[in-house]
């Protein structure tokens, strides 16, 4: 009977039961007594399981003794209590089937026990076999399910917004262009180079930077919606917080203001952290031991206490009087850079912080103008070690002011978006959570390239 390794080590299967495991060899150790221990993982659990291969196996000499890290195997036998340290059960094998050998074990790219994360990025197709990337993958799955569960339990509709679009939601001009190209008949210029200036069936089109504008349309009919999918940013920044392709969760709520929005963001984050604390015990214990000591304590603290809040103007006053030299200028009207965000939440507050009411000139056109006419009803959630993890706002629901803001930012078009203000407009608000930034925050991993299976960053699109 085939069993996932997680069910065997968690006591779901009784001792003495015949079992079959299928997976990949992590290591082999031969005993003087003429038998071998094989450590096998299958991704279902943090731990590998040990299989004891007796010398009597018909293929013991010919195959078992040649197994190396990375070989794929099926082992049948009996689940028995283990004498070894650090494991309660093992498989006493009576049959071994080798599915796939490792060509030239010495050159198996992840043969060594420990590799740098930078090196592992160069073998992104094999890194899921390591402890760390197995753990990240499982936490990512638990988080994604918790996202859907949170909204489903609260009657939000999941709206799948388009990836190909003509609208630059954030107005930052950082979009990838989509072209229709006949690969068998590439358009060439006079010099014979491929002419990539083709458009999308006669219309300019780009990969979306955010599903928000489309989500707003559904929000103004369904009341509570969210998107959860990939988004794209052509920002040429080589940092540990930016990807060219990342996943974003964007809820949008009708009849909601900025306070409702901030309260939703806080409740949502607390729910997600709680889900991971409850469901990812072994993996979190691993991150806590090897990546970030104190991680679990910190996450528990975040769940237990309300988030700190302050206005942008107050944040500027704190930064101005901070006894610290910043690389980028601090002045009212300047955007907060990562160093400022981290100072505020790490040193000033010592936990997550919600900053609200930013100057209108540094924020997107759709954010609602405040009565002071200098700021907009925006809020960012800042997290220690990461900086901005969520960006959100109350939306401008008044057509006249929206038009002024669009004109001020040199935007036109978006007639369909303006329609939403012409036909039954209501106050509404929402935010975007960067899924990989959250995953880094929860696992203690430092580089966002390690929070997504196959990272897309400038000059890196292999795999
Ligand atoms: O602050 P941003 O740009 O906000 C929006 O896109 C809004 N339309 C969201 C909304 O109100 N519905 O992005 C939201 C979040 C950021 O806080 C950050 O966590 C993440 O998306 N993010 C990135 N994550 C990885 N790589 C990048 N290049 C990112 N850019 C933004
Ligand atoms: Mg932002």
TrEMBL record:
<comment type="subunit">
    <text>Homodimer.</text>
</comment>
<dbReference type="InterPro" id="IPR006195">
    <property type="entry name" value="aa-tRNA-synth_II"/>
</dbReference>
<dbReference type="Pfam" id="PF00152">
    <property type="entry name" value="tRNA-synt_2"/>
</dbReference>
<dbReference type="InterPro" id="IPR002312">
    <property type="entry name" value="Asp/Asn-tRNA-synth_IIb"/>
</dbReference>
<dbReference type="Pfam" id="PF01336">
    <property type="entry name" value="tRNA_anti-codon"/>
</dbReference>
<feature type="domain" description="Aminoacyl-transfer RNA synthetases class-II family profile">
    <location>
        <begin position="138"/>
        <end position="453"/>
    </location>
</feature>
<protein>
    <recommendedName>
        <fullName>Asparagine--tRNA ligase</fullName>
        <ecNumber>6.1.1.22</ecNumber>
    </recommendedName>
</protein>
<keyword id="KW-0547">Nucleotide-binding</keyword>
<keyword id="KW-0436">Ligase</keyword>
<keyword id="KW-0067">ATP-binding</keyword>
<keyword id="KW-0648">Protein biosynthesis</keyword>
<dbReference type="InterPro" id="IPR045864">
    <property type="entry name" value="aa-tRNA-synth_II/BPL/LPL"/>
</dbReference>
<dbReference type="InterPro" id="IPR004522">
    <property type="entry name" value="Asn-tRNA-ligase"/>
</dbReference>
<keyword id="KW-0963">Cytoplasm</keyword>
<dbReference type="InterPro" id="IPR004365">
    <property type="entry name" value="NA-bd_OB_tRNA"/>
</dbReference>
<dbReference type="GO" id="GO:0004816">
    <property type="term" value="F:asparagine-tRNA ligase activity"/>
</dbReference>
<dbReference type="InterPro" id="IPR012340">
    <property type="entry name" value="NA-bd_OB-fold"/>
</dbReference>
<comment type="similarity">
    <text>Belongs to the class-II aminoacyl-tRNA synthetase family.</text>
</comment>
<dbReference type="InterPro" id="IPR004364">
    <property type="entry name" value="Aa-tRNA-synt_II"/>
</dbReference>
<keyword id="KW-0030">Aminoacyl-tRNA synthetase</keyword>
